[in-house]
Amino acid sequence: MKRRNQIVPKAAMDAKISYDPANVVTSEVVVIEASPALVWEVLTDLDRYGDWNPFCVKATSTLEMGAPVYMSLVNYPNPGALLQGCEYICELQPERRLAWEARWHENWPYAARRDQFIDPMANGHCRYWSTDAFLGENGVHVMRFCGPWVKRAFDDTAHALKARAEALHAERIGR
Fold this sequence. Notes:
Number of strands: 8
Distance between the termini: 66 Å
Number of helices: 4
Shape: globular
Helix content: 25-40%
Mean pLDDT: 92
Largest sheet: 8 strands, antiparallel
Strand content: 25-35%
Low-confidence stretches: none
Radius of gyration: 17 Å
């Protein structure tokens, strides 16, 4: 029997957080007619998520490496309900990538990593997409049960980010 604070051997932990490309949700790629800097500004302005984000309607964090990100997410399978989550910043590349992760824990053995990508284009605009990798031996189950609605949520978010960034861009250039 495993004791509460027992150290998990590295080989066992690797299986708990291993990556399998079959268990990754990828949003649609959207071209955003705004600069990577403006898209980054929208992505990192967590206080305004409720103004534009149809999936993550509230988020708070310092956005420092390792900091928690507390989120209120629309529960797509149960309309009208919100899911509360906490993940941790694991990558910050200004104007390129923002990522947070749900760490594996004995009480929540569903590790995952969400990456949001901004890809600059030659014309000053950019492409955006996001992924969610469901990790470890439970990843296949999470993918099976959550993958379709997470895909829809991420597609909705990508299109909403495009609309928000392009509206801000137009407003700032006086269109």
